[in-house]
Amino acid sequence: MFTDPTFQKLMSSNTFEVRRKPLIQNLQKLLNGAKVITYIASSVHPIPMIMSQDIPLFEDLLRSCDGADEGYLIINSPGGDGNVAEKMITMCRQRFTKSFKVIVPNFAKSAATMVALGSDKILMGYLAELGPIDPQLGSPYAGSLIPARSFIDGLEMIRRNIKEKGDQVQMYLPMLSKIEPHVIAQCQSAIDGAREFAEKWLKECMLKDTPEQAKEVARALSEGVKYKTHGKVIDYTEAHDILKLNVEKILQKSEIWNNVWELYCSSILFLQQQGPAAAKLFESEKVSLTMHLQIMGPAQAPTPKPTPPSAPQPPPAKP
């Protein structure tokens, strides 16, 4: 029953009314009447991150569940702005005052993990993953995001090599000249902020009965020491057995998993069918909202048009 190819089935009639709305309604029945909302980021859009522009659509999504005090958020996202993640948690908890839980079909990384940490329970598919929440900062030298911990560890490595290995300070002067103290301070503040975020919400929600465990988890996820890469996979076993989070594994052969997976596949396929600007999909049983983000290239100066040659003039009249 649950082994049919999902994408093949979806290709012909992948609309909200035909596919995803019935799946959401069936999930609500399976989850004892709690409302189900979805936040699905495109798997191909270049900027699918959690951002402030999400809030108006997310509010419309929550308004469609007005009156419900129990809710599930199905989230699939690579992460984004941690401040917006906290705002989303606050919005959900003020709407779903009795119970707020998160379902992860595939991955909820970085800031999406932060959203999950603010829930009462995380339901994970057998292939689902969370991730570390250690801050990533832009580097003018690398030209991309690198862990805040890398800046601090790099300075510490130089200090240790000089003190313990006897390296000459002069060897490192070119590198030290590029290190700006305010950047190091910013890195430490970002790490502290991520740790405080996780500790606060874990103590208030899923680990409220084990505050010391909340502190340990917050430190492990935010500091970039236990998990040395930002993309590290934290699966159900790691989340449950090592971090001791309140997580529940959705059984592969269950009707809940079949509905969640089909809903996820239908959502990402729908986004691809909407064209390259479709970045995210927000849905409940009542609304379907697509965020389109157009990628604009750098402005280019207009190409000068060639001046047409002057028309030949008649020779001057002879007297």
Summarize the structure.
By secondary structure, the chain is an alpha/beta fold. The protein contains 11 helices and 9 strands.
Structure description:
- This protein is α/β, with parallel strands linked by helices and about 325 residues long.
- It has 2 domains: about 5-130 and about 235-290, Alpha-Beta Complex (2-enoyl-CoA Hydratase, Chain A, domain 1); about 135-225, no CATH class.
- Helix content is about 40%, strand content about 15%.
- The protein contains 11 helices and 9 strands.
- Strands 7-4-3-2-1-8-9 form a 7-stranded mixed β-sheet, sandwiched between helices.
- Helix 4 (about 80-95) packs parallel to helix 5 and helix 8 runs antiparallel to helix 9.
- The longest helix has 24 residues, at about 180-205.
- It is globular and about 70 Å long.
- The mean pLDDT is about 90.
Question: How are the elements arranged and paired?
Answer:
Layout: H1 6-10, H2 16-30, E1 35-41, H3 55-63, E2 70-76, H4 82-95, E3 99-104, H5 111-117, E4 121-124, E5 136-138, E6 145-147, H6 148-164, H7 173-176, H8 181-204, H9 211-222, H10 236-242, E7 247-249, H11 255-273, E8 278-283, E9 288-292
Parallel strand pairs: 1-2, 2-3, 3-4, 4-7
Antiparallel strand pairs: 1-8, 5-6, 8-9
Helix pairs in contact: 2-11, 3-4, 4-5, 6-8, 8-9
